[in-house]
Description:
Elements: H1 2-29, E1 38-44, E2 55-58, E3 61-72, E4 77-84, E5 95-100, E6 107-112, E7 125-126, E8 129-130, H2 135-144
Parallel strand pairs: 1-7, 2-6, 5-8
Antiparallel strand pairs: 1-4, 2-3, 3-4, 5-6
Amino acid sequence: MQENKTETLVGAAVLAAAIGFGVYAAQAAGLGTRTQGYDLTASFRSAEGIVEGTDVRLAGVKIGQISDMTLNRDTFRADVTLRFADGVAIPNDSAVAIASEGILGGNFVEIIPGGALDNFTAGEEIEDTQGAISLISLLLKFVSGEGDSN
């Protein structure tokens, strides 16, 4: 009888630990939580390498993330919704680009701040965008010599 109680207690402890790890992992991944902030949109010719949840950075500091991506069937461009943290003001002449952390690193969205005194307000569109540059295409151009001016 004592052995069954011990097994039950150990099983309950293991189950509680598993649930705790699951909750921690969900919070760390940002699942089920919508961060506070405001949204801006941008339209990219190529959004290769970014997905929902990809970091949005300014000067190397994470200030938001991608909250939605859809294909615009009229323009054939990737319409991206960027969610910024409250309190982060973006000048309304800023640009946005898809950047890479390096050859083996992932991609992120970089905000290139402008110098305007006015800032974007929630729901506006950042019109100055630069899509992803394919490293494979660049390497193929280099190897084939297409970039040579000789």
